[in-house]
Specification:
mainly beta, Methylamine Dehydrogenase, Chain H, eight-stranded mixed β-sheet, 2 helices, 22 strands
């Protein structure tokens, strides 16, 4: 079950063969500068995080705890909340066209909501595990915990799959996703790292060290792994984690 403490770092992932270095690697290493901290609901097991028309939208997971919510950035309070049946484990979400899409982990369904009212519209079958979800404005882009990203049309038909590599090796555990400036940002599950992926070839171009953020969030006894990336309409980048008490506005350095 996707409910564990931080067990491995990205360095450990290298050791266990999830990724591997090679000579002449061109991956750029980044750290994060915190621009501002905002409150975040510590009962929120963050799965999906994104902005839509100036509104911060979040999906949360766990059986019996899964929700879709609109969140007030300044206070962290939930403005609108939709609860899922306890049999569902909600995952990543995004808006494409006039639909808000929400994955589920192992339930093999995709939910469609109205992005303005957050009212449920439809439920579709879905063939894979659901992890992260984002969009390039044309496709839904989904992860399933493997090294693949699936590019789908609005009816969830797969147009093609992209193999993600880090210095020539498959990179697994791709989780929450966000499309930022023509690149795909992805949390690597159970690490303190975000990777920046070139969508044309699947190569990781950047590695973002978020370990300092997690150290700050250890103040909260329930704080779990890093998860949640969102870019606002004006280009600000936000990250958080599962059960974290803070949402961070950040910039790369």
């Amino acid at each position: 079950m996707k409910r564990q403490s931080l067990l491995i770092s990205f360095i450990c992932a290298l050791c266990f063969g999830l990724v591997a270095p090679c000579a002449g690697a061109k991956v750029v290493n980044y750290s994060l500068e915190v621009v501002k901290m905002y409150p975040h609901d510590v009962t929120s097991y963050t799965q999906g995080l994104f902005w839509h028309n100036g509104r911060l939208i979040e999906t949360t997971g766990q059986f019996g705890e899964s929700t879709l919510r609109e969140v007030d950035l300044e206070t962290g309070e939930t403005l609108v909340r939709r609860d899922f049946s306890s049999k569902y484990f909600a995952e990543g979400a995004c808006v494409l066209g006039d639909n808000l899409y929400i994955l589920t982990w192992t339930n093999k369904v995709m939910f469609i909501y109205d992005p303005e009212t957050l009212e449920h519209r439809k439920t579709y079958s879905y063939p894979r595990e659901g992890w992260g979800l984002t969009t390039d404005g044309e496709h839904l882009i989904a992860s399933d915990g493997s090294h693949r990203l699936y590019f789908m049309d609005k009816d969830m038909r797969v147009k093609y799959a992209l193999n993600v590599t880090f210095n020539g090796r498959d990179l697994r555990n791709l989780n929450e996703l966000e499309w930022i400036d023509g690149r795909i940002w992805a949390n690597i599950y159970e690490t303190d790292s975000i990777v920046i992926i070139n969508p044309s070839n699947g190569e990781v171009e950047g590695l973002v060290d978020c370990s300092e953020l997690f150290k700050m969030e250890l103040r909260a006894p329930e704080a779990d792994v890093l998860n949640g990336i969102a870019v606002s309409d004006d280009g600000r980048i936000f990250v958080t984690g599962k059960y974290w008490p803070s949402l961070f506005e950040v910039r790369l350095k």
